[in-house]
Design goal:
The protein is built from twelve helices and no strands. The chain is mostly helical. It has one domain. The longest helix is centred in the first third of the chain and has 25 residues. Bound molecules: zinc ion (ZN) (2 copies).
Length: about 280
Amino acid sequence: MNSFISYWITIFSSYGWFLLIPLIERIWYIHKQPFFRSGLVSDFIHTYQVAIFQFILATSSPILVEGILTTSIAINIFPSQGDGFLQNSLANQSLLINLISLIIVGEIAFYTMHYYCHKIPFLWEFHRVHHSSVTVDSFSTSRFHLFDRLLFNLPLLVFMAYFSPNSNAIIFYFFFRGFMDRYIHSNINGPRWTHKFMLSSPHFHRWHHTPDPAVRDHNFSGDFIFLDLLFGTAYDPDPKDKPPPSKFGEPGYTNNFFIQQLMPFIFLYKKTKTLLKN
Ligand SMILES: [Zn+2]
Ligand SMILES: [Zn+2]
C-alpha cells in the first residue's frame, strides 16, 4: 500500500472516527444526551493516550503500545529464526485470508477475555472502569483501565507476533475496528438488521452497559456478534417491545483518570484486609 494512504488511514483510525461519530450522534440519536457530561475530560485522556505517548517520546508518528508490544513479543519470545510451526505463515497469504484470520482470532480473544472479566471478581475490578461511565456515547469508548486494555488485546498481539499478518491487513483491520468500537458505544440510532450479518450495533452494546448484572452479563462480543449467538449470551429485545436502556454505569465511581487506575488496587486491598480480619 502507498505509504501516504497507509499514513492517513492510520491517522484517521486514531483521530477521524473520534471527530466524525460524535457529529452523527448529535443528529441521529437513540436518546437525547448532553454533549457536556460528567467524565468527558477523563474520556478525552483515555482516548488520547496515543497522542500522550507520542508527546512523551517526542516523535511525530503515532506510538501504539500494542505495536511496541507486538514487536517486542516477536523479537524476544518467539524463535528469532522464524522457523516455528506455521510461524509467519500469514505474511504471504492474501489480504482476505489475513483479514478473516484477524477478525476471527480478535473476536475469540475479545469475547473470552471479556467474559472472564465479568465472571472473576478480581478481573471485574479492572473492567469496572469501562462500565463506570453513566453516559454511553462515542467518547466513553476508550474508558478502560490500562491493565484491562492490555488483557483484552494481549491474545491478539501474541497471535500477530507469531503469525505475522501482512501490514495492509493490520492497517485495514484496525481502521475498521476503530470505527466499530466508537460506533457501538455511540448514541447513534443505527439499524439492528446489521445483526443478521453478525455485525454489532449501538442498540446491542447499550444493553451491556446497563447497571443490572442480570442484563449486563450478556453481549460480550466486540464488533461481530457470532460468539454471543453461539454461546447463548446475546440479549437483543426489539425496541418496540422494550425501550432501549437509558441508565448506565455507576454514579459514585470516580471520573479522575489517574484515580481510576488506582481504584482496583484500593478495592482489592480493602477486600484482602476484610478477609484477613475474619
Ligand atoms: Zn463488559
Ligand atoms: Zn463497552
